What we know:
Mean pLDDT: 95
Distance between the termini: 48 Å
Shape: globular
Structural class: alpha/beta
Helix content: 25-40%
Number of domains: 2
Largest sheet: 9 strands, mixed
Radius of gyration: 23 Å
Strand content: 15-25%
Amino acid sequence: MSTVDVNVQGDLTIGGIGTGDLVERYGTPLMVYDEGMIRGNAKLFRDAFNESGLKYQVAYASKAFLCKEMVRLAEQENLSLDVVSGGELYTALEAGFPAARIHFHGNNKSEDELLMALEAEIGCFVVDSFLELELLHDLAKEREQEVQILIRVTPGVEAHTHEYITTGQEDSKFGFSISNGQAATAIGLAIRKPYFSLLGLHSHIGSQIFEQEGFDQAIRVLSDFMQRIRIDLDVMMPVLNIGGGFGVRYTEEDQPLPIPTYVKGITDSVKTYFAKNEYPLPEVWVEPGRSMVAEAGTTLYKVGSKKIIPDVRTYVAIDGGMTDNIRPALYQAKYHAVLANRPNEECTELVSIAGKCCESGDMLIWDLMLPPTNYGDILAVFSTGAYGYSMASNYNRIPRPAVVFVDNGESRVVIERETYEDLVRKDR
């Protein structure tokens, strides 16, 4: 549950701290995470799976947002960790995360990344290509090291979401297709490799999904495929990874299901389809990222220039933009925002929120009702906790913002604000 509120002074608060106090202490742009909400979301996933009676793993999808403190939080909440690069893996290991609970994804893992993961003895590799099947096994054989793998498959299910974030359809850069026979071929190769222990299948149908139908269809396809593999190859697989993609609320238009509803739908489908095939119930893995952290994040900006174009538009510029949140420019993502220093004041002006980058496309929100804005006002943009900082850049040589965690009236920096000196540190 979110702790965003308004105090007696009329200022927006997060985690019991006034946003004005946060800005005064840490500056802007500032990414603020409601730590209690993240922990609450983790508990919702765990409790829902515990009610199902199925064995499970909830792996935080670190690509949504990662830093050492987020890794520590994931460990404290008994989550596993999904990484997709050597950098994410390194961060997890540096923070002391148990390697046995790390799953390594990615469609083009390098030899160096695979070696790093092997040396760390991570829990599982999600194999995504025929090249990786051979390369990973060659490396494992050289080390005489058995590795556990999942085979990533595309079930041919097209989720109802933006075309840039669908991943389960037939035409995808991820995984092996079930329908054209590549998935069965990959499994046939994997079971003949002595240093592989085949755990099961991985599937991910997309992101920002608001209904159960896509997951149900995918589980039906996967269950039937696992049954076919049992018959054809005499192979039983004990794990089914459904991926993530659970929707969150960015604006009032978004109507996501509660976390327990997503989990119950998945576990009910698993029980139904696997019982129908008389297949032992698998351990179910999921990988929530956005649904764990998105709504827990709020970005605070200071209002700068204001440009009124009569009968056209009013632009209100802030001191950040596409360098800390590229999602609106990348796939037309929508957000809601308020003036944090005057959240209860009547909204009488229709404005568009512009970033400071030298790009016409650097627009965070196109149409937003706000009170009349003044230079120095604080704008709070909600639900920025996922794919904001993790996709941030130094375009226009703009330093990345600071990130703070807040909880019960306390705040702490988890990522320091970059400086101009940081920008030139690697220059030669």
